[in-house]
Amino acid sequence: MRVLGIESSCDETGVALYDTDLGLTGNQLHTQMAMHAEYGGVVPELASRDHIRRLVPLTEACLAEAGIGYRDIDAVAFTQGPGLGGALLAGTAYANALAFSLGKPVIPVHHLEGHLLSPLLADERPEFPFAALLVSGGHTQLMAVYGIGDYRLLGESIDDAAGEAFDKTAKLLGLPYPGGAKLSQLAESGRPGAFSFPRPMLHSRDLQMSFSGLKTAVLTAVEKVRAEHGGDVPDNVRNDICRAFQDAVVDVLTAKTHQALLDTGLRTLVVAGGVGANRQLRTALNALTVRPAAKGRLKPPAEAVRVYFPPLHLCTDNGAMIAFAGAMRLQHAQTAGAFAVKPRWPLTDIVQPPLSGSDR
Ligand code: KG4
Ligand code: ZN
């Protein structure tokens, strides 16, 4: 079965082909980053117009890459939400028109489900069940994944997403949009411990997270540095701030992930979403072992965790994850074509409540 996947939820147009026998045979992407950089952020109207311009040529390139024609497509999957309304509408209209003209089914996909399943596109695939840390520009969630369509939300950020915190902090440090990746690059030459920022909700005993306070702490530090350096933030000090910010985010994400593994008993972890590209986060999660609470004076041994990341180029938005999620939905007969977009579509609409201890 060959499923064409269309992604257009934000500032990337992605078109990919997933063949259930051969795997990913076509994967085309256009990023609008340069276009939006001029404005310091995504301009929704420009994004929608650019998606419209790119969808047809990207599809042609994708089919050529896969060595097939339009008539060989068995279904068209598209991101129905969440995302920017106009941007979603461009992909939705295109996917529906294409599927209708070919007489093939159309499969609406939840963007986050795409991210969630993207590690299954790697050569080394995780087995169900697994815990998932979803860290993108719009969402930070911990989920338990028991199978295709069987997801339970364990905890999430109550305010800014981790990627959003990276981008906002980058902006206030004067880094060009989109700043998250740039900030993490500068953090690598920052000295650990030169600054110290709070770890919000680290000890809240639940799996909720909060990142909005962190950027305020960074802002306070930046203002103090500016006052001391005649209005400037010297490069080395800026790098130290980047490092301290990244240390705080990575610490919180790692601690909450540890708690999620402990609570669920799961020992396989999947990391998805743009922030999953962060090298320091990858290193910390790769080193993660689960340490069950001591019983009396007996200290149980640390338990190993298998950690899976999507291939780096599939961490950020792409059509491949949408094609793949669509193919999985089709195989599990979970399709319901719809020509509608869902700009605000909580993942909780397609997840179950968390399992209580006795159901596990
Ligand atoms: O998943 P994604 O492509 O888009 C959303 O669905 O949001 O994630 C984009 C987010 C942005 O906030 C970006 O700054 C962040 O991922 N990001 C990073 C890195 N690369 C991308 N954040 C931290 N470190 C990185 N290396
Ligand atoms: Zn995304």
TrEMBL record:
It catalyses: L-threonylcarbamoyladenylate + adenosine(37) in tRNA = N(6)-L-threonylcarbamoyladenosine(37) in tRNA + AMP + H(+). One of its GO terms (cellular component) is cytoplasm. InterPro entries: ATPase_NBD, Gcp-like_dom, KAE1/TsaD, TsaD. Its EC number is 2.3.1.234. Keywords: Acyltransferase, Cytoplasm, Iron, Metal-binding, Transferase, tRNA processing. It comes from the Bacteria. It is found in: Cytoplasm. Fe cation binds at H111, H115, D317. Binds 1 Fe(2+) ion per subunit. The keyword Cell inner membrane does not apply. Its cofactor is Fe(2+). Residues 25-324 form the Gcp-like domain. The keyword Iron applies. Substrate binds at L134, V135, S136, G137, G138, D167, G180, N278. It holds the Pfam family TsaD. One of its GO terms (molecular function) is iron ion binding. PANTHER family: TRNA N6-ADENOSINE THREONYLCARBAMOYLTRANSFERASE (PTHR11735), TRNA N6-ADENOSINE THREONYLCARBAMOYLTRANSFERASE, MITOCHONDRIAL (PTHR11735:SF6). Required for the formation of a threonylcarbamoyl group on adenosine at position 37 (t(6)A37) in tRNAs that read codons beginning with adenine. Is involved in the transfer of the threonylcarbamoyl moiety of threonylcarbamoyl-AMP (TC-AMP) to the N6 group of A37, together with TsaE and TsaB. TsaD likely plays a direct catalytic role in this reaction. NCBIfam families: gcp_kae1, T6A_TsaD_YgjD. Belongs to the KAE1 / TsaD family. This is tRNA N6-adenosine threonylcarbamoyltransferase. It comes from Neisseria leonii.
